[in-house]
Each structure stands twice: as structure tokens, then as C-alpha cells.
Amino acid sequence: MPSRFIYHAQDLAFLIFHSWLKLRWTPSSKTWLMRLDRTIRSRISHKNSADWVQVNHGGKVLDIWTVKVEGDVQGSVPLVIMHGMGGGANMFLNNIDDLAEQRDVILLDLPGFGLSSRPDLRVKYENGWWVDTSADDVEEFYTEVLEQWFQKLCLDKVILLGHSYGGYLSSVYCLKYPDRVKHLILADPWGFPQRPAAADMRPFMRNKALVLLSKLYGKMNIFTPLRVLGPLALPLFRICKLGLKTLFIVKLSGSTEDSADLIERQKLLRQDGLHVFPNTTMQDYCYMWMMHSQSGEVGFSRVSIPFGWARKPLVERVQAWDSKLDVTFIYGARSWIDSQPGLETKNQRHDNYVDVHIISGAGHHVYADRPKAFNHIVQMIGEAIDESRRPNISHEFEQRHLAMSSLRRRSSCASQAELLNDEAGIRQPRALSAHELAEMVESDSQSSNEEDNVGTSGRVMFSLDDVPAEKEHKTQTVLSGLEELSMRRERKSSFRSQPAAVMKNVKFSTEDNNEGSQRSEFQTD
């Protein structure tokens, strides 16, 4: 009875707290954000814990919110994940359990985002004056803070995965501390391409009102318009972030039958490793940390120029990466991020390992749009690192596509089942051995040679070795019937099929009769 009373008292206090929160212009709080964080992390199957890790920078103590997920295999190289702009550590909910099957997974809220501290990145104290920070200052801040964070967690060697803005910061970190990173995975990274010289010459930039509005918005931070809207921001944000519904959310209906169907669908999705929420949990999670003090977005404004271009493009600095650093780019085929800089990086570092993958059907949030395909690539990279070798995933995919093309030529039911179970050529039920691949390549070459011989000789040979014994007599009867039919057709003579020697005696004559008509006749000897 007392525990039940305490439970209802907590709900009542939370309700009163939310009622007071609605009186604020921007309804957000760190307490509400922590409650949402616990709700989301409760969907993780693996054992996990979250706490703040304290680091010191510029004489100030910063708290970095860190989520540790214990993997099934101990002793392997841990995976560190850095979120992008407008996201948080829990955005990788649909990836954590699959990735934790091989190794420990560590996620963090970058300083200025989520539940981490929000330092002032707008100005700095220099020579007795407060001056504006620059792109170099912001990059140095994140690089040194991340290095201290790695030291506090005793992470000597890691696989570093960064998405979007997190990919930019992880790339900058590897410019100074490459020895700590065994492999750098950049998921749809921001900040690589150069700003085109003709960016301001686009037709819509000729509109004076649009130019004025763009200049005004260029002076703001990204989430300033949401803060200006105040209490209208949350419902508007839920509408604008409808894309999250397809990734994490299933709408809950009021009827009991619909609720039962929803629970059943959620069970099926969880079996596939996908987590869903019957409300706006993920939308509220993103909204809560966006409405806090402006810190991370201020740092982003320092390293970027309108609109969305990097002030110091990374494609100009990839040559400064250490030659031992292995890099893998993972792009979404439907993303607004251009994959061309990844290919340019591969060309510039042709003597080093750089691999580029484009996942079909995925957008900017490639890890959430196609989680299984994304997880499979990351797992293959991790397996190669644990075996002290380079992944060489592109070569394996080429061999796999070659094997799949061989399977498509076969008519067996087993091959068709393998094709149906395959995930767009990225994942198949079992890995083909080198011997099987070699046999398939050899069979392809033999089949191509036979096709060439058919074109030269004009004769096609069929083998009936696979015909069962009980059907052999029936097959022979059918073949004999076909031969007799062909012989009858040869005996038939027609006017068109007569040889030229016979046709030479054909006589044609045309006579005009009295009625003005013509009469034609021909004779054959």
C-alpha cells in the first residue's frame, strides 16, 4: 500500500511539474529529458548503464553524458559512436543490440548537445578581451575534450563511428590523434565538399525577399526559430519530424483491439531488432535537448557558412590523415549529402585504405533507414579488425554479387530461396566459401564458352542425364514424334520452298481483255 501511494505521488508531482512547465515560453527541462532517456534505453536488450564523465577544459569542468553497452564478446575492440546535428546517443537505438553482439558499444552526447554540459562557444577570453571564437577554436575544443574523454574511459584502441556532424568532428579528431583509432567509419558525413563558386547564382537566389530572409536566417542559429515559437514549437516540431514516425514510432489508437494489434506488431518488430514507441517519445527527446541553452549549434555556426557548407572543407585536408588510418564511408542513396567527396577522398588516398558504400533506399539517417544493412557493414569491419586484417568489403561484395548472378542462372528452388532471403545483395543466409566462389566463376566461364560455340557451330546439344528413369520412355516417344513431324514437313513441297532450278521454267504472262482488266497466269514444267 505505501509503495502504491508513493507511485501515485510521483505521478502527481510529475503532472504538477508539467503544468508549471507549460507556463514557460519554451517548455523544456533536463529532468524531462532524463526521463525520456531512461524510457528509450529501456528498449535496449543488452546490459547498459549511463553516467556523466567529467573532463577539464580551459579551467572548467565539463560533464559528458556517456552510455555504455556491454557486448557479448569481451576483449574485442570497442565501438564508439558519435551522433550528428539534431540528434543524440539514443538515435542509434535500432543499431545497438546488433552491434553489441560482437563488442562493447559506447555512445556519448557531444558537449553542447543532449544531457552533456553546454559550454559557451560563442566567445573566448584572449589578451584581456572577449573575442568571437573561430572555426579553429571550435575544432580544437572538441578535439581536446574528446581526447580527455578517451583517457578517462581508458580507451586505447577504438573503432570510431561518426554520423553527419559527428563524422566531421571525428575526422578532425583523427587529424591530431590518429593512433587511437583503429578504423574510422563515416556515416553520411557532413563538411567534406567545397562550396561551389556558382552557389549564389542559382535562379531562386534572384528573389530579393528570399535573399533578405536567407541573410537574416544566416545570422541565427539553427534552432532559434523553434525557440521564438515558444509553446507552439513542440506540436509544430512533432509535425515537422514526421519522418521519425517511420523509424521509431507507431501511432496508438484508442480502441482495445487496435492496441492489441499494436502490441503484436511491436513484438514482431522487436524480433527484427527494430524498436517502436506508441507515442511521440523520440520526437520529444529531440525537442527537449534542442530547447536548452545554445551551445552545440553555436559551435556549428562557427565551422559552417550559409547554407550548410563547411568553412574548412575536409576534402582539402584528408591528405593530412595518417597513412595507417583506415577509413570507410557509408552513404544513403537518397540522402542530401553528396557521396562524391568520399570517392574523391579514395582517389586522393589511393595508397591507403578508403572504402565507399552506398546503401540503397536510405536517406541521411542511413543507420535508421536501413539498420540491418548498416549494421552488417559495421560488423564486417569489426570482424576484420579483430582478426588483424583490413576489411576489403568492396571486394567481398563484388564476389558476392558474382555469386548471386550465378545463382540467378539456376532454376533450382534452393537458389531462388537464397535470392529471396538475400537483402539487396548485402546479406545472404550463409557466407560462400572461396572454393564455392571459384567453382561458380569456373562454371560461368564454361557456360560463356558454350554459348560462343553455339554461335559458331549453329548446333545446340541438350543433355538428358538429369531426366528420371521412369520418364525416359515418355521423353523418347516425344522426341520420335517430333522427328516424324519434321520429316513430314520436309516432304511437303510449296511454291516458296522450291529450288531455283525448278523455278527457272516458270512462265508469267499478262494479257489485257476486252473489259479493260488484266489476267495473269503462270505455268511450271
Automatic annotation (TrEMBL):
One annotated GO biological process: phosphatidic acid biosynthetic process
Signal peptide positions (record): none
Compositional bias annotation for Polar residues: 515-525
GO molecular function annotation: carboxylic ester hydrolase activity; lysophosphatidic acid acyltransferase activity
Domain AB hydrolase-1: start-end pairs: 78-201
Superkingdom of this protein's organism: Eukaryota
InterPro entries on file: AB_hydrolase_1, AB_hydrolase_fold
UniProt region (Disordered), positions on chain: 487-525
GO cellular component: mitochondrion
Protein family according to the UniProt entry: Belongs to the peptidase S33 family. ABHD4/ABHD5 subfamily.
PANTHER family: PUMMELIG, ISOFORM A, RE40534P-RELATED
Protein name: 1-acylglycerol-3-phosphate O-acyltransferase ABHD5-like isoform X2
Originating organism: Biomphalaria glabrata (Bloodfluke planorb)
